[in-house]
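Contributing new records

If you add data, match the layout below exactly. Sequence lines come first and carry their own label; structure lines follow with theirs. Keep one chain per record. Anything else will be rejected by the validation script.
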Amino acid sequence: MPLLLRFPALLLLFLALSQAALAQEEVTRKDHSALLFSNRLQFNDRGEPLVSIGLMDAQTSVTFSADGLIISPSGPEGPRMQVDGKREWTATLSRARAATFQWRVVLGSAPTTDFAAVRETLRQLRDQGLQVSMEEVGALFGVLGQLLDTRETVFLLEDVFASESAAGVKGEELARLVGHPVTVERLIQELPEGTLTLRSKDQEIKVEARNAIWFEAPGGAPVQFQKVEHSRGFRWHGREDRSYQGSFYVTVDSGGKLGLGNILTAERLLEGLVPAEMYTSAPLEALKAQAVTARGELLSKIGRRHLTDPWLICAEQHCQVYKGLKAENPRTTKAVKETRGLVLFSGRGLADARYSSNCGGHSENSETAWPEVKAPELRGRVDSAGAPPSDLSQEDNASAFIKNPGAAYCKTKGGTFRWTEKISTKKLSELVNKSFRIGPITTVKPLARGVSGRIFRLAVGGEGGEALVEGELVIRKLFGGLKSSMFVVTPPAAPGGDWIFEGGGFGHGVGMCQHGAMQMAEGGADFKTILQHYYQQSRVEPLY
């Protein structure tokens, strides 16, 4: 069976920033590894998308074992060599060069299908004297008569910058002009290069290739990888042995280090994603709701993330946590199979089906967590059948709600619905001064909250000055990784004492509340009812 099977009854158009076109050009004149950067999606003969997922990057070596190995050193459709017997293998990289980049400032975006919004955004930007060009990201494809369109038009300042810092300075200047946050987009100017070596531990077999080597176990058997790095940037960062199925490749990542990718169908991937995202002991209807949202989230990210990486998505929280075979469970596999191909739609397109662990009694509007995302299905609402609380964007109301939340579907034990963190002045000062050099901390003042009471802007004062902090995730990380930004702060009773953070929820609070979904299912709600509660004006339909 070839590594990638083409689905004939397919209308497929993938659009990304200019690095996609660059990658296609590189394919014709250099090697097949450039395809890994092209954000090109393929399908198997059942109409299921084949997804490349980054398991690790920035490595110096990758070690794994398999009972036999099929190696494709010159591309997935090139010559293949099969090695029989159980062996341990190590992949290394030499003579590597990182990709080179350019940076541009993204001034805004609009759904490509919303022609009025695209024209109006372009007009507003040009009326402000800005030289703007437009690019598309996302995907448009149809399978079995169903159309999926996640395309978005992004508006880019025509100026190109040689460094991220230079683009960032210009972005800050333009944010004040246009009146909303802007982002900086990295584009590949030249793809990375290097020599990959795959060697058996017994030294009997050695394979070398430029830029990438593909491999898989015969018959789709598992491959066991040693010391897989996970959760980089979080307190639970570490390494563990993990097993995966599908096809694999080692390649040169954009930073010039060793990367490991895995290719498998979306449905097979979901069997490993869903148990990593929700308790396998959850009621089946909650697991089905999770499977549908996870499928939609997976498809919505393709062509929109990791545009400068040699895979479509990653295996971390930035995309969706994927732990491989070890995490799979018969109950979650059943939920995936019983919802095969079902996705959530809103209006004429794919719904934005984001989710979080525990909303703390009230979900949040999407733009609070991501200013550029204003999805009508992602409106914050009280997580119960009762009346909503008073306006939680007001400080007094948020404080009262955090301390006395009342009834909620997600009101469970375990320290996520309500929690308290005590941080000493010394520790808090150390945390804040990693980002802002303002000396010992004297004040923490919320400036703006979302509809759930989550803080997305605050001021931190120190003996050496004051810093403005924006972004709910940035705020959480600033204070050492708080469970959410729905919190109130009590300063120390005495100088040098503990700051007390009293909070609610775990995560950004946007979309489906997983703890709430489980309680709804316990109460008899089916997966479609659960989804309609958390995603307003949505519907479940088959995509394939």
